[in-house]
Write a structure and sequence with these properties.
The complex is a heterotrimer.
Chain A lengths: L9 E10 L2 E7 L3 H7 L6 E2 L6 E2 L12 E6 L2 E7 L10 E4 L13 H4 L8 H5 L6 H13 L15 E12 L3 H12 L4 E4 L9 H4 L4 H14 L3 E4 L2 E6 L4 E7 L13 E13 L3 E3 L12 E3 H11 L6 E6 L5 H9 L3 E7 L12 E2 L3 E6 L6 E6 L2 E6 L2 E5 L2 E3 L12 E3 L4 E3 L8 E3 L9 H18 L32 E3 L4 E2 H9 L5 H8 L12 H12 L3 H4 L13 H4 L12 E2 L3 H6 L4 E4 L2 E4 L10 H14 L2 E4 L4 E6 L3 H8 L12 E7 L5 E11 L2 E6 L4 H15 L6 E4 L4 E7 L3 H8 L12 E6 L2 E6 L8 E7 L3 H14 L3 E2 L2 H10 L32 H4 L10 E8 L10 E4 L11 E9 L4 E9 L8 E6 L4 E8 L14
Parallel strand pairs in A: 1-7, 8-9, 8-13, 9-10, 13-26, 15-22, 16-17, 16-22, 17-18, 29-31, 32-42
Antiparallel strand pairs in A: 1-2, 3-4, 5-6, 5-7, 11-12, 12-13, 14-23, 19-20, 20-21, 24-25, 27-28, 30-31, 32-38, 33-36, 33-37, 34-35, 35-36, 38-41, 39-40, 40-41, 43-46, 43-48, 44-45, 44-47, 45-46, 47-48
Chain B lengths: L1 E4 L3 E4 L4 E5 L12 H8 L8 E7 L7 E7 L5 E6 L9
Chain C lengths: L15 E3 L2 E6 L4 E6 L4 H8 L8 E2 L2 E5 L2 E5 L9 E5 L4 E7 L3 H5 L17 E6 L2 E7 L3 E7 L3 H21 L1
Antiparallel strand pairs in C: 1-2, 2-8, 3-6, 3-7, 4-5, 5-6, 8-11, 9-10, 10-11
Classes of the chains: A alpha+beta, B mainly beta, C alpha+beta.
Chain lengths: 969, 90, 172
């Protein structure tokens, strides 16, 4: 019910929205909760376990009941708190956890089965038989006891992430936060003020007290005018991390109709020199029988609905409280013309002076009303009572919102005088609590603590600040007498969101779960989307009582980030598609795509898989043709993705001798040598060729996959072991486009294209050439086993050269070849890649033990010679050839003939396979125990994945041209 | 988490690659007994408290850093350039 | 003159302007890495006529690492003093200028890029998303050097961030 002349909503801007398909209207500035309340809607959801009808309990992000699904284009956001979701034209929300409708929910039968659904229900019921766990019990539980649902489609909505930096982060914009921000801002500090609500002001927006809106407006106006202040509304700080880093979630587009590119949310990383926790406090419910009916809410929530939204939650209101502060709510409701039936104060000595009946020593013991409250009953000083009421406000006192202070595992301390946990200094380095979050509940105290905390924080940052004069504000003492639960026979809810009652906690204690962490897991108290914000302290108070301990001794459970739920989409913002894996394109990319080549990922790179010709319908047809083309004519492939590291300096040769197992100081200028690099633990890191470009100048190549790893390794070796050597290196991978030209006609092709002839250019030679007027580097190396060259030009010329090379190759009966053919040819030659050197392989295993030079030290040398890394027990690189023409697959395991196929008999595994059109056979590379001594023997190749069992002959890994006559041609 | 690169200043943890213990800096001389290599490669103290480890400013300046930090409080106590250490020569 | 056609990383890409902020490919020309050999920094500094402090730009010298700079334009003879490596084609250059430039890049870089903290002639080796880059503050925006192969992704990431900011401004 909306009332006139109250609230911060814009009554000139009506907004239409739907809830469960029915259309309603509200005003801009309304939350879904306030708008529904204004429309007289009390029933908004069903509870988690018992499917109890539920209404609105709170007016903030802690809401445990009023959670809905918001339908937004392709998205469906479950467990959206109606108390946070702002309405906008076209907003479509629906209740959740009910079927077929909110009013008639068939699963409310669970409520009748409540005696069986108590704490530990799952543990006790779904135990046997074990075979039922995954197939039957889990789906059953998930269907019956869920909250909102997601859509199964991929999330396509956009999210944003961003970084922010400040001297002082103020979390919360109530009196403490505003005062802290103002103090720091006037001192010139760089301030961020983050507020979860859409409007700044915190409780000052709801209290309608002595300070009120004029001061809030004036303060915000001053802050807004200062260039050193950023006001971040709708931004919830959700976690405190190391070195002053805070995570915050901003609702960017959730309160607006979807628009192109408009992010739903932004996930902020805020780095702050100092921070002030001014998150305020949350009012506590009181547990009594049937305290969960729609119409029962927190007293402070009623104040917020009244003053912030101009809505009253009922026609005839009652208050049940244990403290003075809660009376504010009924006084203001009365002033607004609402009938108040009674104040029920649990204390014996409280004041009775109010404009309505006040009963002391009161306790509400039961409530009535199926879909909404109609009546309460209980006892007070004068005896039993029954009161007709449609709205019961409750207040069990206040819990400072200490969560963020506890995110680094420090525990808050119990203050008996206010019956609450408060933070202490040093819980999060640089974070200070102020105001209600620190247990200072009066407005005056909050203003003072905010100002003082800001002065102290700025002092820590080496700045000076002075506290402004504090405005006049309410400074009433906080008087309460703890009351956690009213004794009763029925169910009294503690955790509304997970349906945990006082009985459940007591049962947990009785069954031995007396530690608060055990109780939590046994009852699931505090494990719902609200993470126990409404129930943790009360539940542990009940547990303390049940176990005869004090509350301080019982302690709290661990407060973890995030403070409020964060969508995975927001956390992963910027990590979709290219944001997660940047796409690297070679200069030949367009030319390859023009020829119809499918591209495959090689690390971050995109490389052509094969180049289909008309009539070819499978990749194998194209691949086979390309292999035979290279072996008989000439092929061109872009190999620019290989890492290239330019190494210079008087100590360059010495450095290479140290990082490679073999010797490079003896390599003549203009020559190329294959090098093997180990990790310090003796296993192979990478391999590649290195050319000596000049006396003090080398060019190293790495594999595509390990380029970054090798650079990191070289940097480490240089900086850790020989920083004083005269050597520097830098990646030039991106500076040169490099193309392999391979085949018997390779030289013919190059002679036709280069500006000079290369008739005398032997294998493993390097030379500077020019091609069509462009300086180029030419290497005579081969990864195919054919006469091969690699020509490199500055990257800008890459595409043009690739197109020219292809055109020329085609006139010679050659053409482009892709990754598939490249792979087949290297397997035919027994050349290794990271399929073989996968991190558990030594130089000995690949038959390169002799490459570990004996005359010098190198990285990994000592460890590579450890016992166990050499000898017949090692699995060694071999070739495999099926005895019949049967397809084989990588990943298959090898067994001796006659052995049972089981792990203990495993002899090795297959790393690479191909169909070799050259040899007309399937070929494999494998690691086989004592493999080098077993050439000519037969092994069984068993592949459980592909269901093959193939007899293979063990061979030398070099299948083709073992003497290398072709590549030296 | 943030680390201070002595060259680049305080930077987000995502710019750094974590390598492991400072023990990797103590490379035994050629011919050292296998136990010395075992110490360097494998034996770690894993303290609850102050520890020193190696980080690489991978998406930054490429410097290797020796970081002193507390595994209990997460405080970063010092960072220094590996290259600037005394006795770094092989 | 060479007969081969040279193409930049984002050849023929039309600049993008949103919210008065423009993203365009830039041409920085001859780019050379100079890395001083151990103990040779004084001689290198003398030959270059100066050496920028870490994270700064000094004339045509951009600090890129320990005792290392990128030189835009001509490099003097530094034989025996430094490793001198041509980097011209290896880096794509993107220029983002206009009022939303810093906010846009603070979606992608974990750095405080506000002019008060990252003024003109400041530079940083820092990741643009997951990509290594060199970021340089200019008079009215930023110059971003990125590995040439990743230029398209970098463009896409910056465009996406700028689009989101523009949509935010329109949404109020």
């Amino acid at each position: 019910m909306r009332i006139a002349a109250k609230g911060l909503i814009d009554r000139t801007k009506p907004v239409t929205f739907t809830f469960d398909g029915k259309s309603y209207s509200g005003f801009r500035g309304d939350t879904l909760a306030s708008a529904l309340m204004a429309n007289g809607v009390r029933l908004v959801g069903r509870s988690f376990k018992y499917h109890r009808p539920r209404g609105i309990l709170t007016a903030g992000p802690e809401e445990p009941n009023a959670m809905v699904e918001v339908l937004d284009g392709a998205s469906q956001s479950p467990n959206t708190r109606a108390t946070v979701q702002e309405i906008y034209d076209g907003l479509a929300a629906q209740s959740q956890n009910r079927w077929p409708s909110l009013r008639y929910d068939l699963l409310s039968v669970n409520d009748l089965a409540a005696p069986f659904l108590s704490a530990g229900f799952y543990y006790k019921t779904f135990m046997w038989p074990r075979a039922f766990w995954e197939g039957i019990y889990e789906p059953l539980i998930r269907r019956a006891a869920g909250l909102g649902r997601l859509k199964p489609q991929n999330e396509t909505a956009s999210y944003e992430k961003a970084f922010a930096f400040c001297d002082l982060l103020v979390i919360g914009s109530g009196p403490a936060g505003l005062m802290a921000a103002l103090t720091a801002a006037r001192a010139g500090a760089d301030v961020i003020l983050a507020e979860q609500d859409s409007v700044m002001g915190g409780r000052l927006l709801s209290d309608d007290g002595t300070l009120g809106m004029p001061w809030v407006d004036a303060t915000l106006a001053e802050l807004r005018a200062l260039p050193n202040v950023r006001l971040m509304a709708r931004t919830t700080v959700v976690g405190a991390y190391d070195q002053g880093t805070y995570a915050a979630l901003e609702r960017v587009g959730l309160h607006l109709p979807a628009a192109p590119h408009l992010p739903r949310e932004c996930f902020w990383r805020i780095v702050a020199g100092q921070s002030i926790l001014a998150t305020g406090a949350l009012e506590r419910p009181i547990a009594f029988d049937n305290n969960d009916r729609p119409g029962i809410m927190l007293a402070s929530a009623a104040l917020t609905y009244l003053n912030r939204f101009g809505v009253v939650p009922g026609q005839k209101v009652t208050l049940f409280a244990n403290n003075d502060h809660a009376r504010q709510a009924v006084r203001q409701l009365m002033a607004a013309g609402v009938q108040v039936a009674a104040i029920l104060d649990s204390r014996a000595d409280a004041s009775t002076v109010e404009d309505c009946p006040v009963y002391l020593s009161a306790a509400v013991t039961d409530t009535q009303g199926r879909h909404g409250l109609t009546e309460i009953s209980g006892t007070h000083a004068d005896g039993a009572f029954k009161i007709d009421t449609d709205c019961l406000l409750m207040s069990g006192g206040w819990n400072p919102l200490v969560n963020i202070a506890c995110h680094q595992n420090a525990r808050p301390i119990w203050r008996e005088d206010i019956a609450a946990f408060v933070p202490h200094s040093g819980m999060v380095p640089g974070l200070t609590a102020a105001g209600a979050a620190n247990g200072a509940f009066s407005t005056h105290a909050a203003l003072r603590e905010g100002a003082d905390a800001a002065v102290a924080a700025l002092t820590d940052l080496g700045r000076t600040a002075t506290a402004p004069d504090l405005p006049q504000a309410e400074d009433a003492p906080y008087r309460l007498q703890p009351l956690w639960a009213v004794p009763g026979k029925g169910r009294a809810w503690l955790d509304f969101a997970n349906d945990v009652t006082v009985k459940d906690v007591k049962l947990a204690a009785q069954e031995g779960y007396t530690s608060v962490e055990h109780m939590k897991r046994y009852t699931t108290q505090g494990m719902a989307p609200d993470q126990g914000k409404n129930s943790n302290v009360s539940a542990l108070a009940v547990l303390a009582d049940a176990t005869g301990r004090g509350i301080a001794e019982t302690g709290t459970t661990t407060f973890r980030a995030p403070f409020t739920p964060v969508s995975i989409g927001a956390m992963g913002a910027g990590g979709q598609g290219a944001g997660f894996a940047p796409q690297r394109y070679m200069t030949s990319d367009q030319a390859s795509r023009d020829r119809g080549a499918p591209m495959i990922e090689a690390g971050l790179w995109y490389r052509p898989s094969y180049f289909p010709k008309p009539g070819e319908t499978t990749w194998r047809q194209s691949c086979d043709r390309e292999v035979l083309m290279v072996r008989s004519a000439v092929g061109v492939a872009d190999v620019s993705t290989l890492g290239k590291i330019d190494i210079q300096g008087p100590d360059a040769a010495r450095f290479l001798d140290f990082v490679y197992t073999n010797t490079f100081s003896t390599l003549p200028v203009g020559r190329v040598r294959y090098g093997l690099m180990l990790r310090e633990d003796g296993f192979v890191l990478d391999d590649g060729t290195t050319a000596r470009l000049g006396d003090t100048h080398y060019l190293m190549t790495t594999t595509t996959a390990a380029a970054g790893q090798v650079m990191r390794h070289l940097d480490f070796v240089h900086q850790a072991y020989c920083a004083d050597w005269q050597v520097r290196f830098i990646s030039v991978t991106e500076s040169w486009a490099q193309f392999a030209v391979a085949g018997p006609m390779a030289k013919m092709l190059l002679n036709a294209l280069l500006d000079q002839r290369i008739d005398d250019f032997p294998f493993m030679t390097y030379g500077e050439v020019s091609v069509e007027g462009v300086k180029a580097r030419l290497f005579r190396i081969s990864f195919s086993g054919e006469e091969g060259y690699e020509i490199a030009v500055p990257t800008a010329y890459g595409e043009a050269l690739f197109r020219d090379l292809l055109a020329k190759a085609e006139t010679l009966g050659g053409g482009a070849y892709g990754m598939e053919a490249l792979n087949v040819m290297r397997i035919e030659k027994g050349f290794i890649t990271h399929a073989e050197i996968h991190g558990r392989i030594t130089a000995f295993d690949i038959g390169m033990a002799k490459m570990v030079a004996s005359k010098k030290d190198c990285i990994g040398k000592a460890a590579s010679q450890r016992p166990g890394l050499m000898g017949p027990d090692r699995e060694q690189l071999v070739g495999l050839r099926p005895v019949t023409k049967t397809e084989i697959g990588a990943g298959a395991h090898l067994f001796n003939l006659g052995d049972k196929v089981e792990r203990v008999n495993d002899q090795g595994y297959v790393t690479s396979v191909c169909w070799s059109p050259t040899m007309e056979s399937y070929l494999g590379l494998a690691f086989l125990k004592d493999g080098r001594a077993r050439h000519g023997q037969r092994v069984r190749l068993v592949d459980h994945m592909r269901k093959t069992d193939v007899l293979c002959e063990v061979t030398d890994p070099v299948f083709l041209d073992p003497e290398g006559a072709k590549l030296r041609a | 988490m943030r680390l201070t690169c002595p060259l680049c200043g305080t930077r987000d943890r995502r710019e750094f690659y974590y390598s492991g213990s400072e023990d990797y800096l103590n490379r035994p001389a050629e011919g050292a007994p296998i136990e010395a290599w075992d110490d360097m490669l494998h034996l770690r103290t894993n303290p609850a408290g102050v520890t020193k480890d190696l980080w690489y400013h991978e998406t930054g300046c490429g410097s290797w850093l020796l970081v002193t930090r507390n595994t209990v409080t997460h405080a970063v106590l010092a960072t220094e350039l590996v290259a600037a250490r005394k006795g770094g020569a092989a | 003159m060479p007969n081969l056609i040279a193409k930049s990383a984002l050849f023929a890409r039309t600049p993008l302007t949103l919210s008065g902020t423009t993203l365009a490919e830039a041409q920085v020309g001859q780019t050379t890495s100079v890395a001083a050999f151990a103990g040779k920094l004084p001689e290198v500094t003398a030959a270059l006529g100066g050496f920028p402090a870490p994270n700064t730009v000094l004339g045509n010298l951009i600090w890129t690492g320990p005792e290392q700079v990128f030189v835009l334009g001509q490099t003097p003879d530094l034989t025996g003093l430094a490793a001198v490596t041509d980097q011209s084609g290896g880096w794509a250059a993107l220029r983002l200028s206009g009022p939303m430039a810093a906010d846009t890049l603070m979606r992608l870089y974990p750095l405080d890029l506000r002019a008060s903290h990252f003024p003109k002639n400041t530079c940083a080796r820092a990741p643009l998303g997951h990509m290594q880059s060199i970021l340089i503050a200019e008079e009215a925006g930023f110059l971003i050097l990125i590995f040439r192969s990743m230029a398209r992704t970098a463009w896409h990431e910056i465009e996406t961030a700028l689009q989101a900011l523009t949509a935010r401004a329109a949404a109020i």
